[in-house]
Amino acid sequence: MLLVFGGAMLLGVPVAFALGLGGAAGIVLGLSPDMLATLGTNTYNSIAKYPLIAIPLFILTGLIFERAGVAASLVRFAQALIGPRHGGLGLVVVLVCLIMGGMSGSGPADAAAVAMVMLPSMTKAGYPKPFSAALIASASSTAILIPPSIALILYSIVVPGVDLRALFAAGLFPGLLAGMSLLLPVWWLAKRNGWEDPSQSERPDLKESFIKALPALFAPVLILGGLRSGLFTPTEAAVVAVTYGLIVGIFVYRQLSLKDVWGLLGEAGMVSGVVMIIISLAGIFAWAGTTLGTFTHLAESLLSLSGQGWVLMILIMLLVLLAGMLLDAISIYLIITPILIPLMQHFGWNPVWFGILLAMNIAIGQFTPPVAINLMVTTQIAGIRLEKTFGWALFFMLTMLSALILVMVFPGIALWLPERLGYVVGPW
């Protein structure tokens, strides 16, 4: 299974079909060719799950907020809050990406929206384009942690018995911590290199910018407040988010027309189709691996490396970090999580805390070369080559790793909020 999957990836086969081929090879060699009749059932069962409805809806939400002028209003408000200073625009980038993450749950969508607004002004203020592109890519990766998160939705489906509301609540403080880990390095680098002369910057009016940003700021409050109060489920929250985004984009900011909405529906459909194909064909891989005992054997092999939980935890984090440099978040969850479930059960690791650690690791992978999807988005908008950003990307990777280590050593950073809200976060 793994050889066929890896070989297909090396040949350039898309990850969805590489997963399907690996699963089919496992069925033929380990079971019986007659069992190939289960392919249709497995692909259907993989996506015939109610919580998955939230994924295309949150993808649509991200596209709506990206095109509705939300990023521009948030940037102006953040500039009014931070004021003219060395590194001010860099701090604005981090703050806006954290707020945008509470709307879309998608790092690439946030990276595109913020880069379109911020890159011209950062370049004018003296920031090098490679630095700006790497900063926006790394800051937007926090969207995978800040609720609502598409990756956490998928994790709650792959790992049985995990409350999605608890995952959403657990991701909030680690997401903020990951964003804040970028603030001090950005300010220090800007001051050291003389980027952004404060005397050349103007501070927008705080009251005016706050009023204009209020509809955008209310979006995360609406989603998280509705979940906490029980007004709607996480899946229904996605519907509420789409509806609110359309109202804001069409009637408040007036940046969207009905023609634009039709185009966004088509774009969201194509992106969602890619995601669902990956999930459906990964179902073949998951079914074959479970039936053959492949995942159990792999877990036992990892256990044989060391009986110490922390040693294995570090090895797993390194493995996931490497996977994050090569694969997207959805593929990583579908491939690696089934292998890790026996390890979580063996060591009694809290599944909510462990899911947040995986998400933080995958977030780092989204802007770490060679396959850095957020970085691909920002460098394309900046008009520069990807390799020019490698040094800055590795620098931000190290700063965000410090946040990951803190959450690993102090699980309460992730678990305190869901426990206070009364969600189930207990161990296996």
UniProtKB/TrEMBL annotation:
Domain TRAP C4-dicarboxylate transport system permease DctM subunit spans what residues?
A: 5-413
**A Pfam family assignment:** DctM
Q: Where are the transmembrane segments?
A: 50-77, 89-119, 131-155, 167-190, 210-227, 239-256, 268-289, 310-341, 353-377, 389-417
Q: Which domain of life is it from?
A: Bacteria
Q: Look up keyword Glycoprotein and say if it applies.
A: no
The cellular location(s) given in this protein's UniProt record come to:
Cell inner membrane
Q: How does it sit in the membrane?
A: Multi-pass membrane protein
Keywords noted in UniProt: Cell inner membrane, Cell membrane, Membrane, Transmembrane, Transmembrane helix, Transport
The subunit structure is: The complex comprises the extracytoplasmic solute receptor protein and the two transmembrane proteins.
- What's the stated role of this polypeptide? Part of the tripartite ATP-independent periplasmic (TRAP) transport system.
Would you identify the family this protein belongs to, as annotated? Belongs to the TRAP transporter large permease family.
Question: What's the protein called, per UniProt?
Answer: TRAP transporter large permease protein
- Organism, scientific name: Oceanisphaera marina
Lineage of producing organism: Bacteria, Pseudomonadati, Pseudomonadota, Gammaproteobacteria, Aeromonadales
